[in-house]
Amino acid sequence: MRMPPFTLHTPNNLAKALALAAELDSFDWISGGTDLLPNYKWKLNSKPDVISLSKVQELTALSGTVIGAMVRIHDLANNDEVHPLIRETAGTIASVMIRRSATVGGNICLDTRCYWFNQTEEWRRSIDWCHKCDCDTGADCRVIPNQNTLCVATYQADLAAAFIALDATIHLASATGARSMPFADFFELDGMTRNVLKPGELVTHVTLPDDAKNWQGAYQKLRLRETWDFPEAGVAAAWKISDGKITGLRVATTGCESIPGDHSDLAQDALVEWVGKDSIRALAEDVRKAVKPVSNTYFPPAYRRKMLRVLTRRALAPLEHL
Amino acid sequence: MGKGYRQAPGKSGSSKKRTDGKREAGQQDFGVPGSGGSDPHSKLQDLDYVPESVGGWKKQPRGPHVHDQHVTGTTIGKSTPLVDANWKMTGQAQYGDDIRLPGELIGKILRSPHHYAKINSIDTSAAESMEGVFAVATGQDSANRFGVLPVTKDEHAMAREKVRHVGDLVACVCAIDEATAIDAMNAISVDYEVLPSIHDMEDGLLDSENPIHDRGKYHIGESNVQKRVFQQFGDLDSMESAPFRHEADWEVAGLHHGFTEPHAVVAHWDPSGRLTVWSPQQVPHYLHRALSAVLEIPMHQINVHRTFVGGGFGGKSDPFPHEMCAAILARKCGRPVRINFDREEVYWINRGRHPSRIQMGVFADDDGRIAGIETDALIDGGAFASFGHVTTYYNGVLHTAPYEIGGFNYTGARVWTNKPASGAMRGHGAVNSRCAVEVGLDAVAEQMSVDPMTLRLANLLPPHSRTITGFRITSTGMRECLAKVREQSGWDEKFRNMPLGRGIGVGCGFFISGSGLPIHWDPENFPHATVHLQCDMDGGVTVHTGAAEIGQGSDTAVSQAVAEVLALPLDMIRIRSKETDTAPVDLGSYSSRVTFMNCNAAIRAAIELRGKVMKAAHEITGYHPDVLVIGDRRIYYKHDPAVGVSWLEAVHKAQADVGSLIATGAYRTAPMGGVHKGAAAGLAPAYSFSAYVAEVEVDVETGFVKVIKAWAAHDCGKALNPLAVKGQIIGSCHMGMGQVLSEEMKYGRDGHLMNPDLLDYKIMSVHEMPEVVPIIVESNDPEGPFGAKEAGEGPLLPILPAVCNAIYDAIGIRIDELPVTPDRLHKKIEKHCKQTGVDDPLDLPVPRYEPSPLQQQLVERAEAHAARDYQRDIQDDRSSYVNGVLFGFDPDIPMSEQKEGWRESVTPTAEDLADPKKRAAKAWSHVERRHQGDA
CB distance B768–A225 less than 8 Å? Predict the structure, then answer.
């Protein structure tokens, strides 16, 4: 399978990268390339220019609270300073080989996925294309036909759930300046736009709150095989315990909709009258209700929703007796 | 071998001899020429490996074998790394895509975007006029049909009038590079008229305005039924009234082989006008024939060059349209053309396991005998026939053993649908229905409150017997397989005795070791396999064979067979198995025939060669060949190894006497089988048997199944190379576990194949693969080479039912749908919870076992049968035994004379087809066109 031709740019610092980005009309950022290159080979919305971030040193910071966009997932999973929940989550991503190349920023900005989209050009021609990559045909969505406004491709990155659960902040930069926002606000409910990144803008790093180390957490992931597979559903939970009581609880999901879900409000409500196991069951049920997957990944949506309940329960199991 | 020369002078003594069997370039030991091998004073034979029957010490619990006298203790039965392993491990093996010829062009294939459409016109002018494009071809360039089975040739190189599935070949181009070829491919415009397509196999049973193929007067009505089979044997009345019965309606998804290497082909018409085609082919001979038919040139002008094969498993055993395309393009432009598939194209050409709907009834009587098996199998063939004719038979006839059954009632049908074609895949046709039979037996045992292990042991056909449809069973190690897995798995402690979510299950298998009739049946009884040996001044032996090495180890097996007879080290045997120009015809690597047939041919050739060399040795030494022993590169007097002649001296003498030292051997199957229509399907010179136990863990909340451990006993007759046999067992387990737990070709709501890639086609990873304990059972087949039978496909069968039955043991749910993906099992668990009135699946009851009085009766019968089998096997009791003796029949009188209503029928009556539940039976509601005039 052949890659469509493109021009590769390799700026060696952030300023140059952003300046270059401001000049180019249509381009993609590339970091690890584990998501972008397969999509390019399948001719999925490929661009004439690609800017590599591999030589940009500013994006590789890694500490307990700062995680650069160009940090490799493998390094994230194996660094003792990194929050245990992030480490645990990173360790479940794809396979060892992919983790060694893939990056934090790439994972956060992972393109949404869909059975009708992640296919070869010939295959997509056989379904007359789809909304997400319509090849200028104005094609309809193949998952939910007769709606031509929203793409329902699924966001299947693991890290987002963990970052939301830990109340992380995401930092962006462009030639016109930098900005930051709560992690969940980074995403926009549409499988095509996916997030708030403007043309020429990129994710520079993610920061965790200073007290993140006082939070514990767990990540539960649904996938058929213990390697390679994207999450069909993922639940990250984080909690803070002081004096034997839960003083903070946050829950986030991924792999179910076009964006990750922040269910911390539900978790907060559950904390009001926390009775252990039954509260967990009720919260798990609330999470299931809050998420509406569609039929565009390996497992059927009804099963994924039911499993959200199980995954939430399992993630929160350490809180059963509190 | 330490005292010989080394290839690197001056290094001898300093470098250490490897003991791991691996060979290093330039570092191989070899004997001083003419010395008589590594030791000029031969040792006596290694009697540990020589059978008792010819004076060795090798115990023969199953008695002597005709090849015993040719056992020299050289290599047979010793774990040997495959002879081509180093080529692969060092990256020097050339697979299909590694072939590079000067001036090669890259070919690309334009494929159909429609499931089913008429081609009105194809405009290739734009593509042809592009710079760098050398040739364009369409269906109009090849009028002749081909197909792997002569009776069902329904393929063209490219579609002529209509396309039959998404991905069907429409046109092809070749250009200076891949990018140009892709552009040219996209510049071809095709005007289609879309036709209504069918995707559900049951729709294939109905009349259609546009049947996917037209078989003329042999077409079955106006339907898409490609093949239908009906077989009734035995006492069906008793079967119908049997007190214990399990009837299940199975839905089994289609599968792909998932081999590593995508298809690739290079075609070149050389300056002398001959065509050479390089392709990773399992069956070069059929490709040879198909090329000749399609290109309309005689076979002698074609050389099919099999490259290394990066996995086949049945998926590279058809002659393929892209192979024709490459040859057609190369002929058009006079330059070599290479076509290389993307993974998606591999899924579109498919030929994997058939999606199937199987109704399986297993019946048992009050004595715990299997009163009968009733099967209705509808299989989805996709757009082409491929091996489907045979698959339709195999779905039924291959479960007439290893058990003795009262009756056999089979209806089978294969339909065309607008999907990629199904074909042959490891365990061809037997896997799905075998799983259904074994799960049925487990359920029947549960109803009877007996141990399913005992139920099986008390109903086995003995060695040297005949099945209900007339298959000839020679050796069987079934009983030993069951005994070994029972003991090693701790079955008696674990069965129905573990907590919820933990279970153990057993399953058995039965498979052909070679197909009794070759596909290209020849009235003159053309041999199935032929081997030529050639020995020259250097003393090495070159083996010319057409058997296709596809990674299963056929080159190693044939080397071992020759090396054993001639007592030569393996590195003195050279294999030439790649080209049809230099290899005698072999029918190819399918139906697990190669070891059995090709090694038999090789042994015959080696015996002939040995005779010539021994005669020369006799003339030199003066000792009669009967008292000469052939040892490690030396032929010596039996009672005094010091008196002898080196292999080389004897070879030189023989050459001086007779000229070239060559020999040839061939193998044909013995005449066998019944006379009814379809009697030949499933007929084999020998059968392999296997029994597996699997232990699983089921997560009742999510439906995930994890296999913890598998104990896998396989009767391969004789393990010529135990290392290779174990590899086959473990590999089969991996493949079978994929089918039972995760692998499936998923079709979307519009009939599109949704997962034509290795991310979404879920082959198990190393994390899911449990420990497999391979257990080799040797039943010493009387006709197998040194007693050997197949080990490549049979070992796949039992793992599926073993896992299904273990799931039942763990959570009390019967499986009737494959693969058992977590979502499917979760649905069943929810339903089961509702039925049992349990809210939380963690509170589900677990099946338990209280033996009924019948259990003791079965234990006693199994013991009596063990004694019977011992008599028949080891003590050479060859009194006739046919299926039915267990039910009180006399084996020497035709059954139909002993029992009124005994059926032996292959043509259905209206009554036979009345059951509205049976799907495949509906295929018989159509009348073949040639018979329509009579009505």
Answer: yes
Distance CA B625, CA B634 (A): 13
Structure tokens at B839: 């809210």
Contact B767 A225 (CB under 8 A): yes
Taking the C-alpha atoms of residue B415 and residue B204, their distance in angstroms, rounded to an integer, is 5
Contacts of A127 in chain B (CB under 8 A): 750, 752
CB B702 to CB A126 under 8 A? no
Predicted confidence band of residue B5 (pLDDT cuts 50, 70, 90):
very low
Instruction: Count other C-beta atoms under 10 Å from residue B90's C-beta.
Output: 9
Q: Which one of B167, B178, B757 has the shortest CB-CB distance to A2? A: B178
**Residue scoring higher pLDDT (A120 or B1):** A120
Distance CA B221, CA B207 (A): 7
Residue B43 has pLDDT above 90, yes or no: no
Q: In chain B, which residues have their Cβ closer than 8 Å to the Cβ of A144? A: none
Q: How confident is the model at residue B522 (pLDDT cuts 50, 70, 90)?
A: low
> CA-to-CA distance for B737 and B749, rounded, in angstroms?
27
Q: State yes or no: pLDDT of B23 exceeds 90.
A: no
Query: What is the mean pLDDT of the segment spanning B601-610?
Result: 97
Question: In this complex, is the C-beta atom of B782 within 8 Å of any C-beta atom belonging to chain A?
Answer: no
Paired with B695 in beta bridges are B504, B709
Contacts of A303 in chain B (CB under 8 A): 822-823, 826-827
Mean pLDDT of A224-239: 97
Q: Are B387 and B424 in contact (CB under 8 A)?
A: yes
The residue that leads in pLDDT, B151 or B109, is: B109
Tokens for B885, please give them.
């003796």
Q: Which CATH code, of 3.30.980.10, 3.40.30.10, 3.30.365.10, 3.30.230.10, is assigned to B449-517+675-898? A: 3.30.365.10
Residue B34's pLDDT band (cuts 50, 70, 90)? very low
pTM, full prediction: 0.95
pLDDT at B35: 44
**pLDDT for residue B9:** 43
What would the mean pLDDT of B880-885 be, rounded to a whole number? 95
Show the tokens assigned to B48: 């540990």
b/e sequence B265-291, b meaning 16+ C-beta within 10 Å = bbbbbeeeeebbbbbbbbbbbbbbbbb
Closest residue of chain A to B165, computed from CA coordinates = A126
Count CB pairs under 8 A between chains A and B.
69
Distance from CA of A18 to the nearest CA of B (A): 32
Task: Kindly report the backbone phi and psi dihedral angles of residue A308, in degrees, each rounded to the nearest multiple of 5, phi listed first.
Answer: -55, -40
Sign of CA dihedral B149, B153, B155, B157: positive
- Inter-residue contact B407 to B442 (CB < 8 Å): no
Q: How far apart are CA B62 and CA B786, in angstroms?
A: 12
Sheet containing B225-234: give its strands across.
B817-818, B244-252, B356-364, B370-380, B407-415, B225-234, B903-905
CA-derived radius of gyration, chain A: 20
Got the DSSP string for A192-246? TT-B-PPTT-EEEEEE--GGGGGEEEEEEEE-SSSSSPPPSEEEEEEEEEETTEE
Q: Is pLDDT at B130 greater than 50 in this prediction?
A: yes
Enumerate domains of chain A plus CATH numbers: 220-319 (3.30.390.50)
Retrieve residue B502's tokens.
């933990």
